[in-house]
Amino acid sequence: MVRYSIYSLQNTTAIHSLTVCNSSIHCCDVVRDLGVYLDTVLQMKRHVNKIVSLCYYHLRPLFQLRNLVNKQVMTQLVTALILSRLDYCNSLLINVPASTIAPLQRVQNTAAHLILGLDRRSHITPALRQLHWLPVRFRIIFKVAVTMHHVFHQRCPSYLTSLISFTAADPGRSRLRSSSTRAAITVRTCTSLGRRAFSVSGPSACMEQSTS
Description:
single chain; 212 residues; alpha+beta; 3 domains; three-stranded antiparallel beta sheet; 14% strand; disordered N terminus
């Protein structure tokens, strides 16, 4: 027998606890799965805060080493300790508000200043170009676009390929000009959370990459 304990918060109904066979299971606001912190409304702010905190934890000793190692070694250290964390599962941050990923961009800017020996007042865009680093927002889009490339070539799990439909495989679009291309069918959505679904963000990321 399963019983639910339900509460209302700001006119939103949510499950507070679950009773299964006389055992009470309480719900959590945030859970960790494969190193990713997922909150109840998928805002990803908790996950971003954890990444930022961990990156700054590693940046502090790196600043103490900047006069002891050369630029090449420092770049390797930053890539291993900072950029790898910024890129881990970053496709989950597709189409999140700019304010959510802004802390991640500040981390990347700090890492660029560290490698190039710049002060805080220096412009960051030339520094990122010199290091051949994409800004955080475009790193996220690039990751989704790479996943779409694997979907097109059937190099990913079936649960991802089942979410994407291509115009070339749609009989109703056989007479369209797009049927001779690798374009994917873009799913329409009216919600900001729906825009973050892979079936929507994947084709949109490819279109953004092709037009940029």
